[in-house]
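your task:
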Amino acid sequence: MNKFLKVGAAIALGLTLTACSSNGSDSDADSKKIVVGATTSPHAIILEEAKKQLADGGYELEIKEFSDYPNINPATSDGSLDANYFQHQPYLDSYNADSGYAEGDDGYLISAGSIHYEPMGVYSKEIEEINLDNLKEGDQVVVPNDATNEARALFLLQDLGLITLKEDATVDKATKADIKDNPKNLEIVEVAADQIPTRIEDAPVIVVNGNYALDADITEYQRAIEDANSDAAKLYANIIAVKKSNADNEAVKKLVEVLKSDHIKEFIAEEFGDTVQAAK
């Protein structure tokens, strides 16, 4: 009887040790896997390139592409995603505020690093050089209708000498009401950013973010872009966003390291030209 008890105990102990060993291995594998939500262009394209470098370091990157970007942050807050890559800091700040998250809440998201910048660009099929001389009285200029991107568009128009903004206008809040001088009485038309590229067929000038220009394949009509050293370039750099509890995750840190590497910077330059630029 004692003999059978000893055999049973040994088997039970062996199963326990095997289970512990298996769980440890699974845990190690999980810690080297990261699930990132992203929009297709340029974010998922950049992540696909980073995936190769991460694999060389033993990390597995799973990319989940979203066409409906408002759902990406909630999926990160609830833990469905480990991180996301599609937005700039002002958008993230708005999400946290609108969702009622305060710093310290589990769903509160933070930036783990700035990766690239999509310059606001001026596009036109009709006009090759954008200046007052080449625009007619009352010409339409289409700009984004959301607060942050409209402000960027207006500052770019000011840089080109088409309008002058009030002295207290800021690059994150300026609107049409902040236009002080408009010599050609240009008609500033506000449209949802993702709808602007189609207006290149009927409006002399459109102003839109680089990612939308890429998606619509209109980059050949780019006539001007934001200065890479401008305040907007720093403020609107696209980031990797994570829950604060994930900020020190080794896979997250490795992802950011790879995305900020010289290899990825060179890839961005070769793949997208000046429509997408690596963050400084």
The longest strand covers residues 109-117. The CA atoms of residues 90 and 262 lie 26 Å apart. The radius of gyration is 25 Å.
